[in-house]
Amino acid sequence: MVHLKRPIPNLELDLLRTFVAVAEGNSFAAAAESVHRTQSAVSQQMQRLEQLVGKELFGRSGRNKSLTEHGVKMLGYARRILRLNDEACLSLMYDDVDGVLRIGSPDDTANTILPELLSRFSKAYPRLVIEIVVKRSPFLMDMLKNDVVDMAISTVESVDYPSLVLRVSPSLWYCATNYELNIDEPLPLVVLDEPSTYRNMAINHLEQAGIAWRIAYVATTLSGARAAVRAGLGIMARSIELLGDDLRILGEADGLPRLPDIKYNLYMRSNSPQKAAKVLFESLKGMIIIRRR
């Protein structure tokens, strides 16, 4: 028989939300912005959580808050607890949400960010029919403007629509696993045809760094661009969502400029959005979704 030395504590949801924000933002400062608290309040909350569980959850060196072994274990449980809480509340609060919801998504988020959203939506709103449109971000913004989709995940920055930041991801240079980079020759770029956020990003940062470049291959789809990179035709700038075993990352050690982080925003159409879109968008405001990959 197991004899407990002390009563099992009740974990407070606010503490768990802040804990997940700290773990995913790697700092109290990033978490403070996510949960709309001061950095001091976040620090106090994490001290309270560590007191409740009787374990150190964070390493004590530096400003970055790395998780201890107990912290990693707690993170998994915290996410599950919060997900169940949110699903239960949303399902009871909005059990009458039905109809068809059209969501636009870029190709590189279809296997990363989108499944998480769809999982939340389908469990909380089983009567809702969801249609997915996969296009590039600039095209999705046009579809949002013309009311073709109700919501869109996009890397385009816009103040014309209600928005939430779903994820902040590093942008990286990709090449084939056996690619040999020659920085003394114009850099061969694999790009998408216009309009392309990453195409402009790559060219602008190469020119700022004084690195010569040339367009080696233009693709109309991300899968086509990826195939060209895998074939060794050149290198491509893209977010970490593209990372896989078939590609290799290049960086500053290879003489390439560092690329900025990219935001994946969730936009809702502003022209008479349907009830399902408004309910889902408002419900997401209370969830910790934003994270850095």
Task: Tell me what you see in this structure.
It is a single chain. The chain is globular. By secondary structure, it is α/β, with parallel strands linked by helices. Strand 6, helix 7 and strand 7 form a beta-alpha-beta unit. The chain has three domains: 78 residues, Orthogonal Bundle (Arc Repressor Mutant, subunit A); 92 residues, Periplasmic binding protein-like II (D-Maltodextrin-Binding Protein, domain 2, 3-Layer(aba) Sandwich); 90 residues, Periplasmic binding protein-like II (D-Maltodextrin-Binding Protein, domain 2). 39% of the residues lie in helices and 20% in strands. Helix 1 packs across helix 3. The strands form three sheets. It has a five-stranded mixed sheet, sandwiched between helices. It has a three-stranded antiparallel sheet with strand order 8-5-9. The longest helix has 25 residues. It contains nine helices and ten strands.
What's the average pLDDT? 82
Q: Report strand order across the widest sheet.
A: 2-1-3-10-4
Structural class, from secondary structure content? alpha/beta
Gross morphology = globular
Name of the CATH homologous superfamily of the largest domain: Periplasmic binding protein-like II
Q: Describe the largest sheet.
A: 5 strands, mixed
Order of helices and strands: HHHHEHEHEEEEHEHEEEH
Number of helices: 9
Identify the notable features of this structure and list them briefly.
globular, Arc Repressor Mutant, subunit A, 3-stranded antiparallel beta sheet, alpha/beta, D-Maltodextrin-Binding Protein, domain 2, 293 residues, 3 domains
